[in-house]
Automatic annotation (TrEMBL):
Annotated Pfam families: Methyltransf_25
Organism: Roseibium marinum
Domain named Methyltransferase: residues: 48-148
Name assigned to this protein: S-adenosylmethionine-diacylgycerolhomoserine-N-methyltransferase
Keywords noted in UniProt: Methyltransferase, Transferase
Record bears the keyword Methyltransferase: yes
Signal peptide: none
Any GO BP: methylation
Biological classification of the source: Bacteria, Pseudomonadati, Pseudomonadota, Alphaproteobacteria, Hyphomicrobiales
Claim: Repeat is one of the keywords in the record: no
Amino acid sequence: MSEAAETARLMDGVYRRQRHFYDLTRKYYLLGRDLLIDELQPPAGGTVLELGCGTGRNLIAAARRYPQARFYGLDISRQMLDTAQTNIDKAGLTDRIVLVEGDAANPAATDPLGVPAFDRVFYSYTLSMIPIWREALAAGTNRLKDTGRIHVVDFGQQARLPGWFRTLLFAWLKSFHVTPRAELEAELQSLAGKTGTELKVRNLYRGYAQYAELRKAVTGPCS
């Protein structure tokens, strides 16, 4: 079995039951997701891709916030995509949000969408769940327009929180196959150097979460 197939099997097993109450519980500890949506600000007629879209919660919120854009979601779990499609249909956004099943680390996984490149690509608490997360980040840059941006929010390293809290949280997350990436900022810095982009990083809630943005450096006329 390939690594992607094994990951799909694992995620389907994890979320087969959880998907029915996922959004109700996650809103209390997946912090910073709405900040990411606020920062997306796609251009009129723009395209936005979420890699690891889960139940579609972020796509629905973003589509409501930016009615002038089109949204696309990819997830490796068929179980989560079924729930996402149901939620999107209920929200009346079927004409503006399109889903595809695939591996976020495979740049060709979005080919069936028929969109050659996206204005925004974002990851919301996804990289901590993807075993080959560096490859998933690199694949996101390959799906991005030259003028596009990458947005990331995920667990931080709890640097300004009590040690006991970090220990308990990380142990609990591990039971859900979630691993906060201590090397995330360094990997983003490496990507910024390779792609000629500017990196901005914010630690949220005393290091509980981390928000990052990769964008082309803005250069103005010489003064």
